[in-house]
Design brief:
Blueprint: H1 13-38, H2 53-62, E1 68-72, H3 76-81, H4 86-93, E2 117-121, H5 127-141, E3 147-152, H6 159-171, E4 175-181, H7 201-204, E5 212-215, H8 219-234, E6 240-245, H9 263-270, H10 274-284, H11 289-311
Length: about 325
């Protein structure tokens, strides 16, 4: 039950370039989102995945179109990685009517059933049992769909974490639990309040699951463990528990300067930034500087266009207050 260290990644080089594009897009998008926050244009709070892009990109690349993603409030990256366009996501952060949820959900509640993004959940650990429900529906209907549930290390001390793993193991559900362990629950180091070093992987064995720890800053390694877990789930072999080690470059949320983290720790993890690391690997494997620069320029243009389109969106009016609240589309029949 050793730490997973495989780093071969996709066999198709075009897929590797696509995975690099995804990581760059997630980085540039969230950097722009932070800039817009500084301009007081982002409404409500927001939680960025800067530094954690390899997890979203690696899994999304390995998943099929009709698989499901369940994310936390730190869900921008997972939403975009599954193919949701930038403009509606950015517009949602700005609280505009052309947003993904018509400006009503904001940063923490991104959902796109069309793309298999089954919600971003603000309540810690709440979505793990919901992912089990989706996986059970696939099992019941006889499809090969898999539910992939992402959560932070802080969720591993919540009761729903243990309940979901136990139920998934007993029923051999096609669900993959992915702990994005960035070492800090919010302002507290996870190891200071947890009895084991790896709060997800070290507990997996209690539910009969394999202990899997992966370098979450290596997109190829993430892709490999994701592919293996997805294959197991589709074959009816049950759930997997994967702990991806990573690090957020900034604070817990937009208002957190993260001064509580040791400077040497931050420097060590910044040196493991997944994007320059993957860029260097692609160059070693035959990509040209021109190819990669072209990808980066194309993504930058997409971010600029999304910014202008999002800003152009209107402010939601009163007519949207009751939309999508009741199944029949409104509340008039109740009054």
């Amino acid at each position: 039950m050793a730490t997973t260290t495989v780093t071969s990644g996709p066999t198709d080089f075009a897929t590797k370039l696509s995975m690099y594009r995804s990581q760059v897009a997630l980085r540039q998008f969230e950097t722009r989102a932070y800039d817009l926050f500084l301009e007081n244009l982002v409404k409500g709070t927001s939680h960025l995945s800067l530094g954690q892009e390899a997890i979203a990109a690696g899994f999304a690349t390995a998943m099929k179109k009709d698989d499901w993603t369940f994310a936390t409030y730190r869900g921008h990256a997972h939403t975009l990685a599954r193919g949701v366009p930038m403009t509606p996501v950015l517009a949602e952060l700005l609280g505009r009517s052309n947003g993904l949820m018509a400006g009503k959900g904001g940063s923490m509640h991104l959902t796109s059933v069309e793309h298999g993004v089954m919600g971003s959940y603000a309540i810690i650990g709440a979505h793990l049992p919901i992912a089990c429900g989706a996986a059970w529906s696939a099992q019941y209907r006889g499809t090969d769909q898999v539910a992939v549930c992402f959560f932070g290390d802080g969720s591993t001390n919540i009761g729903s974490f243990h309940e979901a793993l136990n139920l998934a193991a007993i029923w051999k559900l096609p669900v993959i639990f992915v702990c994005e362990n960035n070492l800090w629950m919010e302002y507290t180091r996870t190891t200071e309040v947890t009895s084991v070093e790896h709060p997800a992987a070290d507990r997996a064995v209690a539910y009969g699951l394999e202990r899997i720890v992966v370098d979450g800053n290596d997109a190829d390694a993430v892709y490999d463990v994701a592919s293996a877990a997805l294959q197991r789930a589709r074959a009816g072999e049950g759930p997997s528990m994967i702990e991806a080690m990573t690090y957020r470059h900034g604070g817990h949320s937009r208002a957190d300067p993260a001064k509580y983290r040791p400077e040497e720790e931050v420097a060590e993890w910044l040196a493991k930034d997944p994007i320059p690391r993957y860029r260097s690997r692609l160059l070693d494997e035959g990509a040209t500087e021109e190819q990669l620069s072209e990808i980066e320029a194309e993504v930058a243009a997409q971010v600029e266009l999304a910014t202008e389109e999002a800003k152009a969106g209107g402010v939601p009016g009163e007519d949207l207050l009751m939309k999508d609240v009741w199944a029949d589309g409104g509340s008039s029949w109740r009054n």
